[in-house]
From TrEMBL:
Family note: Belongs to the protein disulfide isomerase family.
GO cellular component entries: endoplasmic reticulum
Signal peptide: 1-18
Gene Ontology MF annotations: protein disulfide isomerase activity
Organism this protein belongs to: Daphnia sinensis
Superkingdom per UniProt: Eukaryota
Keyword Secreted found: no
Keyword annotations from UniProtKB, A to Z: Signal
Pfam family, one: Thioredoxin
Residues covered by the Thioredoxin domain: 15-135, 137-257, 258-385
Designated name of the protein: Thioredoxin domain-containing protein
Biological process according to GO: protein folding
SUPFAM superfamilies on file: Thioredoxin-like (SSF52833)
Amino acid sequence: MGYFTFFAIVLLVKLVAGNEADAGTSQVVKLDGDNFSTELSKSHHFVMFFAPWCGHCERLKPTWAELASTVQSKVDEKVVIAEVDCTTATSLCSQQDVTGYPTLKFFSKGVAESQRHRGPRDLSSLLSFIKETLGLPENKEKVVETNTEPLKGAVELSEDNFHEHVASGEHFVKFFAPWCGHCQKMAGTWDSLAQSVGQDNSITIGKVDCTQYRNLCNEFEVKGYPTLLWIKDGKKIEKYQGTRTHEDLKAFIERMKGGDGEAAEAKTEKATVTGSSPVVQLVGSNFENGIASGVTFVKFYAPWCGHCKRMSPTWDELGTKFVGKSGVKIAKVDCTEGSNRQLCADQKVNGFPTMFLYSNGAKVEEYDGNRSLDDMFFFVAKLLNEKQEKDEL
């Protein structure tokens, strides 16, 4: 045996031993189809669904291991950092609607719905996401909000007066946490909004402190701060998801007054091609028919979303590149309009923009790659070519 061969074997043995040692000391819990439900019932879990061949997953693993070793010192509640190998736990990943890798989901103990993390994957962002999902303060020093609202401003609601207050009429309610930076920034705007509609006796502007009345906020499924809900006769009608300027909030009030969204819904119950754009605009009433045959690449968006606005020209160009190609459509759905809100909820759209690829009516994969024209074109073309090859067999 030559010297260099011997040296290579020794080095390989050390690397293997090192990897085994790392695996042995890692605090990341491995889950699969056999123990998933049982373990999740015991505590909060932040789970990475991955594939061993996925480059993004491999790059994330050191940060994921660091998160597992530091989370308990940074978060006041017990959170288990876990992973699921989707190449072996295929049924579990299918049940969890995992269509790309890595998929990161937070499962709160005792809560059926999971929260998907779509933000940056650095340690600080992951920790912030955990705290926000659990409703914990980012900085314990920032727990007090100075109450500067005038007497005729937003109505302060509590578990004692909330249900009686909203039982009849129309109400725009802010659910907030005092430590929340976004809530602090919009406090002045909310004051101003309350004053500007103060003469309109048919509408009230209210607020609920979720750190004091958590049960009330759980009842209305408040999962982030601030959450702005339109409530009519005691029932939640719509969640406001636009920009938080005084003008936009006032416009929303004007749109909602005296109705429950039917007018907005009626406007969208038709399919159109936007101007000269080759992108098909789908709505709740024609969505199933729209994706029933061929390959359909759908962008779910909100008009106020900055990322959506920036990629809109690229999406139109993508539609143009497929003009004349049979069996493929580029489409979009405005998730803020009418029955589209329920459609987007049914399709499990958790952020904007979300792009799903469909084949003959079935969801195939979520696009999680670069939003350049070439990358998205090749993503669609790959499935289209595979489908054509199968059809020719």
